[in-house]
Specification:
Layout: E1 7-12, E2 18-22, H1 27-37, E3 44-48, H2 54-65, E4 69-73, E5 78-82, E6 90-91, H3 93-96, H4 106-113, E7 115-118, H5 132-140, E8 144-147, E9 152-155, E10 163-165, H6 171-182, E11 187-191, H7 197-209, E12 212-214, E13 220-224, E14 233-235, H8 240-252, E15 256-260, H9 269-277, E16 280-284, E17 287-291, E18 300-302, H10 314-323, E19 327-331, H11 341-347, E20 351-354, E21 358-361, E22 370-372, H12 376-388, E23 392-396, H13 399-402, H14 408-413, E24 418-423
Parallel strand pairs: 2-15, 3-14, 6-7, 10-11, 18-19, 22-23
Antiparallel strand pairs: 1-23, 1-24, 3-5, 4-5, 7-9, 8-9, 11-13, 12-13, 15-17, 16-17, 19-21, 20-21
Length: 424
C-alpha cells in the first residue's frame, strides 16, 4: 500500500452481513512490541498474527531506518526482527510524522545508542493528545530532554530506576515507561498505569524477553532493571477494536456474524452497551457470535479508560445510535477531537447535535453521500454508516481507515457487503 495514491471506499447499503470474519492482530500491541524488539541485542524476534495495517508498515520502515533488519512476511502475517545492530538514533521526520507510535522507539534508542532524536510527531490529530508525559517520564529516569524547532533531542548516559506516575492511564505512556525501566538498573515504580489487554500482552512479551515486571493489571507496576533482554517468539493478541467494529457492522445491518478470535471479556463496557441496544452475543470458545434481530434501543455512552467504554469505538456506536429508536447521549472524555464524525453523519441524514456531548436523535434513515474520513475512527464509522444507508456512500480518504484495519473491504465483502476499495 502506498500513500502516493488516494484511496477511497465506495459502499452501497442495504445488505445484511452474515458469515465468518477473522479478527486481526491488535494494532496497539503490535506497535509497542516492534519498539520493544529493538531492546534485544542478540537473536531474532518473531512476532506472529501481525495486522497488515499502515501503522505497522510505517513502524517497519522506522525500525529499518534506525538500523534493525526487519522482514515482514505478509502471507504468514509474521515479522522477523534482528536488532543486533542499531546504527542511527534519528527518527526521520517523513516517517515519524506519519506514525504517532514513533515515540515507542525512544527507549531502545536511549538504551542502545544513548540518545534519540525525534524529527516530527505524527498520527491522528486528536486535540490535546500530546506526548510530554512520555518525555517527563524519561527525564525522571535520568534522560535529558531538549526541544528544538520541530525536533526533540533525548540523551541518556545511563537510565536508572525511579518513581514514575502517569496523569492519565495512557497505554502508550505505560508501555514506553515499562520499556525504559526494563533495562534501567534499580527499581522503577509506575503509578496509575493503563489496564488495557494490549498493555498486558506487551508486559507478557517483555517478561518472556527477560524483563522483571510485577503488578500487571493492577494500575501499579514495579519493574526491576535487568542487564539485557533477549529475542523471543510471540503471537500478538486479537484486536478488540477491530472485533468491536466488525460486531457493530453486523449489528447495524441486522445481520449475524461469527468473529474468529474475538474475546468478549476484552470488550469491557462496550459489551454491556451493545447488549442494552439489543445486540446478542454467544461466546463459543475462540469464536464470538454476534447477531441482532430486534429494533435497536437508544444508549447513553461515556468514554473512559479500559475497562470503560473504548474511545476508539465511540464513533461506530454513534452510527448505531442513529438507527436506534429514541435519543442517545454520547460523552467523550478522552480525545477532544472525536466529534468530527457528527457533520459527516448529518450529511447522510442523521440528526445529531453537539452541546458538550453528542445528542443523537433516532431513528433517522441514512442516505448515501460523499463523506470525509477526518481520522481513522471517523473513517471506519462512515464505512459502517454506508453499509446501512440507502444508495451509495463514498468515504475519502481511505488511508486513515487503513491505519487501523487490514483489508476491510474484502473482509466486509466476504460477509455480503457491497463495498469496494478504489485507488483514485
Amino acid at each position: 500500500m502506498s500513500v502516493g495514491h488516494e484511496v477511497r471506499y465506495r459502499v452501497r447499503g442495504g445488505h445484511r452481513l452474515s458469515g465468518t470474519a477473522f479478527v486481526q492482530g491488535a494494532k496497539n500491541a503490535a506497535l509497542p512490541m516492534i519498539g520493544a524488539a529493538l531492546l534485544a541485542t542478540k537473536g531474532r524476534t518473531v512476532l506472529r498474527n501481525v495486522p497488515l495495517i499502515e501503522d505497522v508498515y510505517r513502524a517497519v520502515e522506522l525500525a529499518q531506518a534506525v538500523g534493525a533488519r526487519v522482514e515482514l512476511h505478509e502471507s504468514e502475517r509474521t515479522l522477523v526482527i534482528d536488532a543486533s545492530t542499531l546504527t542511527s538514533s534519528v527518527l526521520p521526520a517523513d516517517m515519524a510524522r506519519r506514525f504517532r507510535g514513533s515515540v515507542l522507539f525512544v527507549p531502545a534508542l536511549l538504551h542502545r545508542l544513548g540518545e534519540a532524536v525525534i524529527e516530527g510527531i505524527g498520527g491522528c490529530n486528536l486535540g490535546s493528545r500530546n506526548l510530554d508525559f512520555h518525555y517527563r517520564g524519561f527525564a525522571r529516569l535520568g534522560a535529558t530532554v531538549d526541544e528544538g524547532e520541530g525536533v526533540i533531542y533525548l540523551k541518556a548516559n545511563k537510565l536508572t530506576g525511579s518513581h514514575l506516575y502517569l496523569d492519565t492511564p495512557s497505554h502508550t505512556g505505560t508501555e514506553n515507561l515499562i520499556m525504559a525501566a526494563a533495562l534501567a538498573p534499580g527499581t522503577t515504580v509506575i503509578d496509575n498505569t493503563a489496564l488495557e489487554p494490549e498493555v498486558l500482552d506487551v508486559i507478557h512479551f517483555l517478561s518472556r524477553m527477560g524483563a522483571r515486571i510485577r503488578g500487571a493489571g493492577t494500575g501499579f507496576l514495579t519493574v526491576e532493571g535487568v542487564d539485557e533482554l533477549t529475542a523471543v517468539e510471540h503471537t500478538i493478541m486479537p484486536d478488540r477494536i477491530d472485533a468491536g467494529v466488525m460486531a457493530m457492522a453486523a449489528a447495524a445491518t441486522g445481520g449475524e456474524v461469527s468473529l474468529v478470535g474475538a474475546t468478549l471479556e476484552h470488550f469491557g463496557v462496550v459489551r454491556w452497551k451493545l447488549e442494552q441496544m439489543g445486540v446478542e452475543f454467544a461466546d463459543q470458545g475462540a469464536v464470538l457470535q454476534v447477531r441482532r434481530e430486534r429494533p435497536l434501543r437508544p444508549i447513553n455512552v461515556l468514554t473512559s479508560p479500559y475497562p470503560g467504554f473504548a474511545t476508539d469505538l465511540q464513533s461506530p456506536i454513534m452510527v448505531m445510535a442513529c438507527l436506534a429508536d429514541g435519543t442517545s447521549y454520547i460523552r467523550e472524555t478522552i480525545f477532544d477531537g472525536r466529534f468530527a464524525l457528527v457533520d459527516e453523519l448529518n450529511k447522510m441524514g442523521a440528526n445529531i447535535e453537539v452541546n458538550g456531548r453528542a445528542i443523537v436523535h433516532g431513528p433517522t434513515p441514512l442516505r448515501g453521500a460523499d463523506v470525509v474520513a477526518h481520522d481513522l475512527r471517523t473513517g471506519i464509522a462512515l464505512v459502517i454508516a454506508g453499509l446501512v444507508a440507502e444508495g451509495e456512500t463514498v468515504v475519502t480518504p481511505g488511508y486513515p481507515v487503513e491505519r487501523g484495519h487490514t483489508n476491510i473491504a474484502s473482509r466486509l465483502a466476504a460477509l455480503g457487503a457491497d463495498i469496494e476499495r478504489e485507488v483514485v
